[in-house]
Request: fold
Amino acid sequence: MPDPRVTKLAKIMVHYSLALKPGQQVVIRTHPLAEELTLAVYEQAIMAGAHVTLQNAVPGTDEIFFKYASDAQLDYVSPIRKLITENFDASLSIWTEHNTRSLSGVDPQRMARVSRAGAKLGQLFMERSAKKELRWCLTVYPNQAMAQEADMCLSDYREFVYGAGLLNDEDPVASWKRVGLEQQKSVDWLKGRNQVQLKGSNIDLKMSIKERVFIPCDGQVNFPDGEIFTGPVEDSVEGWVRFKYPAIEYGQEVTDIQLWFEKGRVVKESASKNQELLTSQLNSDAGARYLGEFGIGTNYGITRFTKNMLFDEKMGGTIHLAAGAGYPESGSKNESGIHWDMLCDMNDAEIHVDGDLFYKNGKPVV
Amino acid sequence: MPDPRVSKLAKVLVHYSLGLQAGQKLVIKTHPLADELNLAVYEEAIRAGAFVTILPRTPGAQEIFYKYASDAQLDFFSPLDKLITETFDAFLTIWCDHNTRSLSGIDPSRMARVSRAGTQDFKTFLDRMAKKELHWCGTAFPTNAMAQEADMCLADCQEFVYAAGLLNEQDPVACWEKIGQEQKKIVERFKGHNQVALKGSNIDLKMSIKDRVFESCAGEENFPDGEIFTGPQEDSVEGWVRFRYPALFNGQEITDIELWFENGRGVKETATKNQDLLTAQLNTDAGARYLGEFGIGTNYGITRFTKEMLFDEKMGGTIHLAVGAGLPETGSKNESGIHWDMLCDMHDAGIEVDGELFYKNGKFTIQDHPGK
Reply:
């Protein structure tokens, strides 16, 4: 019998996050190390009457691919991915890694090329998701590599993951719905407002959110969850930000990133480690130097940084900005093959909206 | 570093069996327990410039599917599989199991229903393969489950598998090409002949091979290999056969199968174990009671029955008959959602072709043949 939280999580994924109906087509992207959760979700989905496609990673193939692939292979987009993106009703990604740093030796240019090739399908995925034609959810299954990345032992990391998902609660779905109601208060207050100003020791940034929509996130698209986000008006971002938390892309760590914006565009970037990766990702395509997302973490149950963005960006007391593609449902028009979240500590910062104080020292004040 | 035979096998599969070219689309259907071979093949295929999709099973999912799937789910055919069958250039199946008997508890009529749902796809696959629009190869990766099924320890099973593939040879491809040439001589002798009569303590069967083609198999579509086969005239098969070796279908063992044929159709079947599975499979669709294949094993290096058909049907001294779909390149016209090989011991049997003795007591009696 699996950990009872795994069974609970599987039920939530299938019935709450994806809300699967009989006859729907769902793809589960997963990893052999997540077999316990994969089988629990598969069973729930089959019992719900869905047509289920399991896509398992083969640990080691990404490394081989990036090592030996020709340009034609890097540029190739699988017709299988296309078919799923165009036709499926639901997509669940179970994020598990056998080695979070296995792509450390790969040339960033080759990664950017792969991002570029996938841009069109990534855009279509987001559009179908915005139109509610496609429901998707991303979750994590804890293992040693991820615990190691977070400086934890596996059993502590497991408790961290299931705790953050409120899976120790009697009725986690009810708890997540309460989180959603709480977030709605901030979303309602922000509605119809325009100018956002973020100021603190790590940030001095202005942006417009005119006619953009803030979305509350309560466990349906990400699990665990806890954030509100929008897409800023693309050409409105001005100023500077420093991300004290390292950003991780394709398993490479980029530390102490600073970005300078003019008319929405990143005109200068620096990092103390792997700056080359940062620059090549920002040069992926035209949209990669613009922000697609501005999000505010609302989960104060997540109290430590684990170098996994699914959790980190939800942390109360942080905001995140994503370079690249925005979510159409937020009103964002930015398109790109990348969507790279970066995390900014806000514990000594303030956010004013149209001159009114909205957020101070890591918490909303409205 | 993997077992050097695994690296060798990966090269043979990619370059010889599949003849993979840059720009071709390859799918690898496999199992996580075969990761050593999966990665070796993946690397060879990527370096050959192919576009590779690798699809490992999730151990345990099939059991859940058969346990809980509704009729609509059993009847559903994945559009992904359809896309792959219709458009990919190369297919590699790596047979590998975590438990060869995990589907033992499943209702046979549910399995037959799944076979039926795949009939059209299977036909497309066989048609494209006959037209050489796609290359397929099936191979096996040894695991403890496979070794257990064969009454062996894993190390012996590995040696068995790699030896049967001639992977201890300096140049396995050269060996397989030589086998292919020898088999072609036998195939030549069958050409233009009509009536085949098989007679022995386990078989008394007649069939026509008029206008049908024997294919010589030397590691292109199965690896390891060693057989020649054709598709008999569908309505010509008459008589009786007993398969002394147990047949396995989706992990269920059916023992001591006997079939009686009239006008090509299996009109009666018996088995001492799991007869209901046998009957359910033969009732899958109209073609399931007709023979799609008559094959003769030519690999005298395989000396033991392992209950893995990939090896068993190649064994010198055996023939195999498959109920269900035939391969169009042989001239077979039989269509079905199933293709189920059954193995018959020929050590005390003979084969006469238009009255001439071709085969006796497990060996060819005609010139220039393997096993003589």
